[in-house]
Specification:
alpha+beta, 10 helices, three-stranded antiparallel sheet, six-stranded antiparallel sheet, about 15% strand
Length: about 280
Amino acid sequence: MARRGSWRRRVVLLLTLAMVAGAIYTAVAFLQRSETLVSERCTAVGSGSAELATDQAANAALISAVAVRRGLPARAASIALATAMQESKLRNIGHGDQAGPDSRGLFQQRPSQGWGTTEQVMDPVYASNAFYNALVKVSGYQSLEITDAAQRVQRSAFPGAYAQHEVMARAFASALTGQTAGGLDCTLRAPAAAGDPAAVQERLSDSFGDVPASAGGRSLRIEAEGPLAWAVAHWAVSNAKALSITEVSTDGRSWTRTAHDGWQASDAPAGQVGITVAEAPQK
């Protein structure tokens, strides 16, 4: 009888362990699928690898788009991104510090030093152009170390600080200027609101200027090829959170917001970028 009781206890124990294991597996699978636990971020790979928060990535995309619009090399965007990261953490802040009480914006430009009005330097497009206006006056800036080029524009009290952002700046500039195809991916939760193709087109024009585009339904088609196509595509991914973008495609590859697996092979044609926005969420 004792042996039979021992055998029964073992069976009960094994069944209990199996149930516990099943419960754990189910809980883990649920948590992995849970949108609320998705860690939203943007990652650039290519010339190094780096991550940014989604709002930082959107600002990085604008700064880089302005460089593309002006016909500047990716090196200019790298310098600008390293500078903005050091000065403002790539956020459009409306305050300065003890060294520059009137500093404002992405580059902490000071109206008192001739960068423009407070309203102007708080405009990211204006601020980016003002930075590049000063950078292109630096002789041989493309061959300078990033920290040296940035310092000649900014004249910071901490000139060596820009160097710590070089890896990030190079990785994001390479992707956002279209030099690295499929080099930028953002992991995002499902959209909280419907997207508007007209709003996407307006924001795109603010960044890149007039790019031929046509809208239809929830989609926008932009005529672009080569590096410009990838610059626009990566810009769209970087702005996917704010603009409720769900899919971006170009040149045989597509990014889908809900897939969380980066750029995948597709039948997307070359010579254009497709951007699709979300429908209104069902209540």
